[in-house]
Design goal:
43% of the residues lie in helices and 14% in strands.
Length: 225
């Protein structure tokens, strides 16, 4: 057997060794899939590069958990950095945040996460509204939604894993990818490859826009008032 037929694609090795970043890998994937006859996959690539608009649903790995953190004034004390508990129906709206940023912004925020544990990835909240729903004995004087630590690094990690799996799938079906071109002329092979890539992107039939499920409980763990 010709040994060149068994040579792994350079893009796969480079990704594993960290020689190229996720942004470069996604641009190469965009090029490789240029002639693929599936708009949903190509749209996913474009959305990951440029970001998701407000009228588009985001994939599950771009849904970030958040906590309601704030300052609470009681009759006897002022408590800062308090994890404010809120009812389940409000948590569904407030405590899951769609990350719509394009890849460049994701990378920048991921860098900020690594630089400090107080990375300021927070979103201010209306005080009057929070006071109307907070499950506490006291007054909220300040509140914001704080994303879980390493939200953006986790998105990059998920995206890297998916891109690498897609490259492996393409290599398995079409051989070495070093020429950065794939001829999608075999309809049966293309359909099978499209199905497998779709499963990689959307987690084996998890549809974009699926809502995270919450346990039937109040959100917030500092429930000691």
């Amino acid at each position: 057997m010709d040994i060149t037929k068994r040579k792994r694609s350079k893009i796969i090795i480079d990704m594993i060794q960290g020689n190229i970043d996720v942004a470069q890998a996604l641009e190469i994937l965009d090029l490789l899939l240029e002639d693929l006859n599936d708009e949903s996959i190509k749209k996913w690539v474009k959305n990951e590069i440029n970001g998701y608009s407000e009228d588009e649903s985001v994939p599950k790995y771009r849904k970030a958990n958040a906590e309601i953190i704030g300052t609470v004034k009681t009759y006897t004390a002022v408590i800062s950095r308090y994890n404010i508990p809120i009812p389940l129906e409000d948590a569904k709206e407030l405590c899951v945040i769609d990350i719509r940023d394009g890849l460049n912004e994701i990378v920048q925020m991921a860098t900020a996460e690594k630089e400090t544990d107080s990375h300021a990835l927070s979103i201010p909240l209306n005080i009057a509204y929070i006071n109307s729903i907070a499950c506490i004995n006291g007054e909220v004087t300040h509140a914001h939604r704080q994303l879980s630590m390493y939200t953006y690094n986790n998105i990059l990690g998920s995206l890297k894993s998916k891109i690498l799996s897609i490259f492996k799938e393409l290599e398995k079906s079409y051989g070495n990818l070093d020429e950065y071109y794939i001829d999608f002329q075999n309809d049966i092979k293309e359909q099978e490859t499209t199905k497998n890539i779709t499963n990689i992107i959307f987690d084996n039939s998890i549809k974009i826009g699926d809502k995270n499920k919450f346990d039937d409980s109040i959100i917030g763990n500092n429930n000691n008032e």
